[in-house]
Amino acid sequence: MPALNADILYMLFNSANMNRWNDHMRPVDLTELDKQAHKAAIAWVLGKFEESDGNLMDWRLLIEHTLYSFIQRSVMTDLKPQVFHRIVSERKDEVNDFVLSEFDRLVPTSDPGFRERFKDYLGGSKDSPEDAVIRAAHYLATRWEFNLIYDSNRSLYGIDKTRVEIDEQIGQHKDLVGVRELMSSEEAFDFIDLIGQLRFQQRWARTPRIPRTTVLGHSLLVADMMYLRDLDAGSDDRQIYNDFYSGLFHDLPEVLTKDVISPIKLNVDGLAAILEQYERDQVESTIMPLLKEEWREGFRRMVYDPFSDVDDPVYGRRDGSDLKACDLMAAYMEASISRRYGVTSQTLEAGEREIRAKLEARGKGIQADRLISELDRVLI
């Protein structure tokens, strides 16, 4: 069975319905999907710092274990972090059995190799450098969220204890050069702060919709979809890296321009070209100075023209055509699932039809017809 199927996509998408910090006052919605997306981006930063320090990173392992930790959190519902970590540490075998059984229930047709590695991940020691990076990224993303809500919750009992606990968890990962850099370098932290701002930007901003997914959450869904597609295609490690992180960062320029909806881009003559040039100018002047110079050329190749097919002798292959199909599939899910939840509009229904037509025309590489048919049968 293929790793890329509608059951796993809906399971991941459904985490947009899981609210975080829901026992606190929140200036904006904070969802599990967005947290996992922010965590994946921070893990890239930490991994690049490790590479710059002369340490090897197994990016395929890091990407897959980031996805596995996402799946684990998704099926454990919205437990408070302290409760979640205590249960996992004190009842590891029972929790792992439950998580795997829930995964099998929610994704009954999973690729056997993917499932077996997930089982190994759950039962493993998670003592690899990549797992350390993922844990550190988790706590750094949590701290970013906490800093966002802290001022609104100063009077709550236990709020300062929570701050101390989070800082202690981050402190346990100071052996990672990236953690030390993020704690001491304003530029390094500004980059992950900028990425976090994509958690404030709603997709389909003018259209009532449930759940109200964000640009960053959408980007992770695209990246994970592309990773699963690459597993099915037997892609090599370099392409997996290029495809996944191009998917994760493909909408990053929107933090500088906001999301301009497609009908405006297409129907205002010359606007698309103006926006593209403006985005590049802003990326160069605003984002690139926040990255180490040695990362910048590779990063440009991820954020500029991410939907183009590339086969570079130095940077490797990227399948931009299928990445675009994944982007369309994620948008289709946003429209289709909201309609099935009972929240729709003429704009949303028209968008769903138009995206479906595009997928039928250019989604053969991800078997979009099969995914759409499977999604129609998913119980939601």
> Which segments are poorly predicted (pLDDT under 50) over 5 or more consecutive residues?
none
The structure class reads mainly alpha
Extended strand count? 2
SSE pattern? HHHHHHHHHHHHHHHHEEHHH
N-C termini distance: 22 Å
Record the strand order, biggest sheet: 1-2
* CATH T-level fold name: Hypothetical protein af1432
Tally of alpha and pi helices: 19
CATH homologous superfamily caption: Hypothetical protein af1432
Main sheet? 2 strands, antiparallel
User: Which term fits the overall shape?
Assistant: globular
**Which CATH class applies here?**
Mainly Alpha
Brief synopsis:
With 380 residues, the protein is mainly alpha-helical. The protein has helices spanning 6-13, 32-52, 59-75, 81-90, 92-106, 112-123, 129-149, 159-171, 177-184, 186-196, 215-233, 237-249, 254-257, 262-267, 271-287, 296-303, 320-341, 346-362, 368-377; strands spanning 310-312, 316-318. Helix 3 crosses helix 7 (129-149) and helix 11 crosses helix 17 (320-341).
Describe the structure.
The chain has a two-stranded antiparallel sheet with strand order 1-2. With 380 residues, the protein is mostly helical. A hairpin with a 3-residue loop joins strand 1 (310-312) and strand 2. The chain has one domain (6-377): Hypothetical protein af1432 (Orthogonal Bundle). Helix 7 (129-149) runs antiparallel to helix 8 (159-171). The protein is 66% helix and 2% strand.
